[in-house]
Request: fold
Amino acid sequence: MELRKPPPVRRLTPGAKVTPQPGPAAPQAPPAFGPHAPANGAVNGHAPASFVTARRTQRPPVPTVDRMQVEELSIAYGSKLAVKSVSLPIRQGEVLALIGPSGCGKTTLLRSLNRLTELTKTASLTGRITLDGLDISTLEPTALRRRVTMVFQQPNPFPMSVFDNIAYVLREQAKRRPRRAALRSSVEDALARAGLLDEVADNLDHPALRLSGGQQQRLCIARALAAQPEVLLLDEPCSALDPQSTKVIEDLVVKLREEVAVVIVTHNLQQAHRIADHVAFMYLGELVEYASAGALFATPREQRTKDYVSGAFG
Amino acid sequence: MDEEFLEDEDTGLSQDQRAELGLGALVCLVVLVLLAMLAFIFQEAWASFSHNGLHWFGPGGNADQQIQAIFTSGDLKQTPKFLLHAWPMIWSTILTTVGSVVISFVCSLFVAVFLVEFAPGWLKRILEPVVRLLASVPSVIYGLIGVLVLVPFIGNHLVSEKAQASVTPVISLNGYSLLAALVILSVMISPIMIAIFSEGLRSVPRGWLEGSLALGVNRWRTFWNIAVRTARPALIAGTVLATARALGESVMLSMVGGSTAFAPNPADGLIFFVEPSRGLAATILHNTDELNSPPMRHTLFAIAAVLLFSSAALSLAGWAAKQPMKRYFNVGGTAA
Amino acid sequence: MSSGVLTGSRDPLPTPAGASPPERRGAADSSASWRLTDRIGLGFAWFLGLLFCAITLAIVAFLAVQGIRYLRPELLWTNPQVGFNQNETGGFLDPIIGTFLVAGIAIGIAGPVGVGVAVWLSEYGRPTALARVVESTVEMLAGAPSVVLALFGILLFDSKVLGFLSETTSDGVVFGKSFFAAGAMLSLVALPLVVSTVREGLQAIPNHVREASYAVGKSKTATIRRVLLPAARPSVITGHMLGIGHVIGDTAIIVLLLGDTQTLQGVGNVPLWGILRGTGSTLTSYVFDNAPTGDLNQPNKAYAAAFVLLVIILILNVLVDVFGRRSRELRWS
Reply:
């Protein structure tokens, strides 16, 4: 039975504890720039956005590895350009947030990373996207989508049990249909990585559609992780969820960044501030500014970014 | 001023209550009609069942001769005869119904999948109204085509002289056959299945299909594993409806199946397909001229009772099959 | 590793007028990469889809060709006569009239009753046990074979009570076969279709429409009559037409309950009532009788009549499509 055994989780800091450490009681004097700049206080004479004083999710620093590279990507639906000449790096070890008002092309950009834009007949693309150095247009879409998986805005668990939802991916990958006992460890591993195992462990045959919204979304994340991807794409995963579930998923995302490269699209600026390491602000299809999260929110360089981050439009 | 709102002083009932009672009475009337039908039919059928007991359903003797004897005994001078072993006709009904439903299910499922997901746009737009049109073609027209095209074809090309000679004393192989019945019945019930299956497949939420594609599963397997699996209630509903149609089909089968109550034996080999047969519903149609003979009447009503019971059991089976699926998703009860 | 600040502040690509940037698709999800079983499955689906088209085309073309070959206009307005060969036996005017008569009676009963039952199921439906019984009844009627309904009709109309609906001979024997008898049983065929279509149409109307009507003080009856039924009109019409379609195509009930006389044989002297009490035939029984397996065995006439029948059904289908589309265009939110 040729079932791919789950490889050991590729943590970048082998000895590091996985659970986020509770930080010091109050933020120490931080550096002015960099991922951990809390940016309270005016720098360069600009007043920062009001939520910037809030605490960002604590995280141990991790080294990063380049996974994907977007080069001069333009996407058009018919004759209308949705994404204009965007270039971005995507790295394992960090969370990249795509922010911007509605219709600015961030979801289109995200969907092009796993070639879901091809499902729309009128879509066309120029530019290059590479995964580990390989142009993704030369890969089989199904193979690509196992390495770059996506979680959608509306939780969409399949109408099966929790076990079958995750086993679905594993069964599709295996050459011959594996038995349930063999799949159990992989399923539980995926559920553990998604932080859902404790809540469903007593009955893995529970119908997935009967879980709460937050649990369903974590199930979708577990399902995406079961494929052992290198990149995890999240399309506004918390927009349909309540604040508690949102917090749980945000903590999960921060934890996962060590194992996979995470790209998250969000229209919630506070969320981006909490969890992202790098932020790309898009407006009307252009990449307006790309910077580390602290820098972009505290000291945005472009006027448009300043306006968006401070709430002048959105 | 909306005068409908005023209460009727005499009866004390508002117009709303009167309307509800009136409609309730109408609805009860409909239920009563069905109950009356069940009662009358089973009452008329009882004589035939009581004379034969369970052997009514068994084999034994030539069913045609038995029916003939029943008819002639209707003359007032004779004691009525009820002897009937209806197995040949039951077997024929089972063969045609099960055979055509199985063939049609497989083909209709693939055609529905093709229609909903893989057909090019222009073909989709043509096929949808075509399926609906085919579903409404009367069975007598299917029978006409069968009798004027398929039956001569089978009789002339598929039946050899040798085969004819081998069965001559018992039956004649002239093209009116099980094969003709199966082919035409399958074509006749396919549009029903295709229409209901397509509707079910189309109502699968796109989010599920997209989610499966985004996990790296190819289009065929995505559609098959998610959409077809989710549409199982529609598959059941379509199958039940088509089976009911096949079960009760009298006109077309009487035109192409042959008029002998013969039970084709699969052990005979290929000749099995070209042997004639006649099912329960077709038997009723065949003998309607003889309804004024009382024993014949009881016998035909007995056959009708068996048909009615089967279609009721079928509906029940369909309902029961849908129950376990309700656990995993909301099963809409509306499809047919 | 420090993160460089990459801005995308170059000039945006000039939006081409009407033309899209050069398309570059990579290895698309062609089926060449799938497993063998998947490819076989897809091939099978294509094969059966095209086979289905071919069979449909063959049936329609064959009937059209044969029908046009044998259909002469005078067939449509002459009556069947006794004759020796197919040139002398006349046309099928009476069967056409018979078809319309029988459809009229059937939908005349099934239409109002069906709408009433649908309204009760959708808007009232109390007690729930009765509602479930009614639903099962309608489902059973839908699944009942038409021969069985025909036999029931024979039982009903043979009785003296209903003798006025058909011919009664001088010694009190009720003939029991007439347009009334056939029409009444055919209404049972049409009823489930009307009920399910109208019910779906009513249930598709969102609740806020009803609430809006109650909020301005209308009673439930008025709401149903003035708001809901007019809104469900496309479904009502569709249901009626589907019912008519089924009724027109039925043969078993006609053969058993219409007396099978080639021409309309009225009973008594009252104009319409006499005809309805009498016997006749419809296009379906005409085709049945003229097929090689029937008594008359005139295949040419059978083709012609079948063609006419098919054209009527085609027109009905087109009308159902048109009204169905109109009901889909009705947007509530």
